[in-house]
Design goal:
174 residues; alpha+beta; Aminopeptidase; seven-stranded mixed sheet; 28% helix; transferase; Acyl_CoA_acyltransferase; acyltransferase activity, transferring groups other than amino-acyl groups; GNAT family N-acetyltransferase
């Protein structure tokens, strides 16, 4: 796990003790738009998810890791999703639970750790991120980390009764 430890945060696998954190995060309607969730999850369903979280990325096409700060507090989650080993690509998503923990560099450090892992260990050629056009903080974060805007999905997400554009960012491993 040395390659998943940064200066201020580290990434670790999900543990059974993360159930309450996951329950709170997955049932927060404020993030449903970015996660694609449309209904709450029960603790039972999330417990079953945690029991299977050890499964290999090549089998389930996803890797979800916890973002922990230097005090070992769980502050967020970061994912590789739509893992495609044939075409050597995956999507990347991140959420920091509390507003007070955002804009402190933890997200940037987590993304950097995960893309380095994805490029060196999983041998991926590229990562992509889908970011709401109005999500300036996330757009700035991915741009700062060298992700390039490569497309716009017009009227992609229905939110609050209106359609919103989604920006596609890519980072190519040269």
């Amino acid at each position: 796990m040395v390659n998943l430890k940064g200066e201020h945060i580290y990434l670790r696998a999900l543990e059974p003790e993360d159930l309450d954190f996951l329950y709170e995060l997955e049932n927060n309607p404020d993030i449903w738009e970015i996660s694609g969730t449309v209904a709450p999850y029960s603790k039972h369903v999330l417990k079953l998810y945690l029991e299977n979280a050890h499964r290999d990325i090549y089998e389930v096409k996803q890797l979800r890791l916890c973002i922990c700060n230097g005090s070992d507090d769980l502050v967020g989650l970061i994912d590789l999703f739509d893992f495609d080993p044939k075409n050597r690509r995956a999507g990347i998503g991140i959420v920091i639970r509390n507003e007070k923990d955002r804009n402190k560099g933890m997200g940037a450090e987590a993304i950097e750790l995960l893309y380095k892992y994805a490029f060196s260990i999983l041998n991926l050629r590229q990562l992509y991120a889908n970011v709401g056009e109005n999500n300036t903080a996330s757009r700035n974060l991915f741009e700062k980390l060298g992700f390039e805007q490569t497309g716009i999905k017009k009227d992609w997400v229905l939110s609050g009764g209106s359609f919103k554009n989604e920006i596609v960012y890519q980072k190519i491993n040269n």
